[in-house]
Specification:
alpha+beta; Peptide Deformylase; 3-stranded antiparallel β-sheet; 2 helices; globular; binds zinc ion
Length: 193
């Protein structure tokens, strides 16, 4: 079996507090290479919607959200009936460097989550329904995003990764799911981040 491109639960890199990227390094070849690698790993995951740098073994404060996470929800009648891989998204991936959550809604919502570093499991996590994040993009420009629903959950899940926290620390109703790699399900219902 080929080596998993995503670091799995049990590796200490997933439990350490990731370091901020120095401003002068943001546009460096090293960071550009790391981001390109993260995008490639994410693109290889049918149900992966986001990936944090520690998940590829780099304890740096960077995460990437796949373009497909920003697409409209796939409804039941649009659900493919074959077993083909989900269509590639035309929306660009978003890169977040040194992200900081600046605002959280009071209201919370429970949503099913998975994690590419904890394969074969799903669980419900109660998180803030809306989250605002401030980060630097690949050019070092300050960007602010307001996320709701799935995107807000992803922001919180990924920022947790950068602090050495896994969703399994917070999840209720953790379930085994052997199909994490191949199950044909709606992306918005089931996602690994
Ligand atoms: Zn994760």
């Amino acid at each position: 079996m080929p080596k998993d491109p995503v670091v799995q639960d049990g590796d200490p890199v997933l439990r350490q507090k990731a370091e901020p990227v120095a401003h002068k390094d943001i546009t460096s070849p090293k960071i550009a290479k790391l981001i390109a690698h993260m995008k490639k790993v994410l693109a290889g995951e049918d149900f992966g919607v986001a990936l944090a740098a520690p998940q590829v073994g780099e304890p740096l404060r960077i995460f990437v959200i796949a373009g497909k996470a920003f697409e409209p929800v796939i409804t039941e009648d649009q659900k493919p009936i074959d077993n083909a891989a989900p269509k590639k998204s035309l929306l660009p991936d978003h890169v977040f460097i040194n992200p900081e959550i600046t605002r959280l809604s009071k209201k919370k919502k429970e949503m099913s989550e998975g994690c590419l570093s904890v394969r074969g499991k799903y669980g419900s996590v109660l998180r803030h329904e809306k989250a605002t994040i401030k980060a630097l993009d690949e050019q070092g420009k300050v960007v602010t995003y307001h996320g709701a629903g799935l995107i807000a959950h992803i922001f919180q899940h990924e920022c947790d990764h950068l602090d050495g926290i896994l969703y399994t620390d917070k999840a209720v109703k953790l379930e085994e799911d052997a199909d994490l790699r191949s199950a044909r399900v709606k992306l918005k219902e089931k996602h690994g981040v």
